[in-house]
Amino acid sequence: MRILVLGGTALTGPHAVRRLHALGHEVTVFHRGDHEAEFPAGVRHLYGDFAHPPGEVLHPAPDVVVHMWLMTEADAHAFLETFSGIAGRAVVISSGDVYRAYGRLQRQEPGPPDLIPLTEDAPLRESRYPYRGQAPNPDHWMARYDKILVEQAVMSRSDLPATILRFPAVVGPSPYRRFERWLRPMLRGAAELPIQQRWSEWRWTHGFAEDVAESVVLAATHPAAAGRIYNVGESQTPTMAERLADFARVAGWRGRIVSVPASELPQSDRLPYDFAHHLVYDTTRIRTELDYREVVPYEESLSRALELERVLE
Q1: What pLDDT is attached to residue 313?
Q2: pLDDT of residue 309
Q3: Separation of alpha carbons 275 and 240, rounded Å
Q4: Could you tell me the CATH number of the domain that includes residue 197?
Q5: DSSP string, the chain
């Protein structure tokens, strides 16, 4: 198949591109040049603006177009205008932040905890633009980011059948070091690691970058995935304390993890969320329909994330 990947140079994209190429597909990566990645010989590599792609991106027409970086409703409509009626199918990356539980975790909307695990049919956020308050200026994409609006736009068009992948919290190794603040003390040999009590009991589905990339490969290569929405991530979600304990075991750290009230932590280390709202995603659908499985053993994924911390320490 001819597969066009828009973006594809950051955390999960390079793994997906390499895997698709290894399977014998004709892969083109089209991106803006903000990040670079090493791809095998034979992967076509083009630069430009997503909103105004050059003709060589559209001809010959891709069988599947994968958009790794579709963040706003306006961008979604521009994507549809460009590829509807041209590409055979689309795969679009979304996020678990579409769920109502996320809005309540962020204290952006009231209500009791939703039943977990969250299936693809779980209630979505009633609030919109979850990161607008973090945008550096009104014109920044974070001010207009909302994956709910992206999903609604993409799934509304019959002339570009789409698959939506709701990603979990993705773990490296990569320059984005999700557990840096907790792993550094371990690697430095601290005797104790104090962590916020409510956070320590909280659950959030994660996925190692290479494993999550496999969901992109499966969605792109399974025509039956068209029109479907899939949660992606680990099959069992531990508490954050349990996750850190796994890191500690793999790192060989002999210190003690101590759960303490937020008031006992420095102000900069206090997490302001309502941790009664867990973000545990049910990944049964993608495992059943697309036979999704992790490609990196769990212990190895922890070891590889730790190795990056050692290198950057």
Answers
A1: 61
A2: 84
A3: 11
A4: 3.40.50.720
A5: -EEEEES-SSSSHHHHHHHHHHTT-EEEEEE-SSS-----TT-EEEE--TTS--HHHHSSPPSEEEES---BHHHHHHHHHHHTTTSSEEEEEEEGGGBHHHHHHTTSS--PPPPSSBPTTSPBPSS--TTGGG-SSTTSGGGTB-HHHHHHHHHT-TTS-EEEEEE-EEE-SSS--TTHHHHHHHHTT-SEEEEEHHHHT-BB-EEEHHHHHHHHHHHHH-GGGTT-EEE-S-SS--BHHHHHHHHHHHHT--SEEEEE-GGGS-GGG---S-TTS-B-B--HHHHHHS----SS-HHHHHHHHHHHHHHH-
The total number of residues shown for the chain amounts to 313
Global pTM? 0.96
Q: Count how many domains the chain has.
A: 1
pLDDT at 184: 92
Structural domain harbouring 46: 2-312
Alpha-carbon distances, residue 96 vs 107, 146, 303 (angstroms) = 16, 11, 25
pLDDT lower than 70: segments of the chain:
173-176, 313
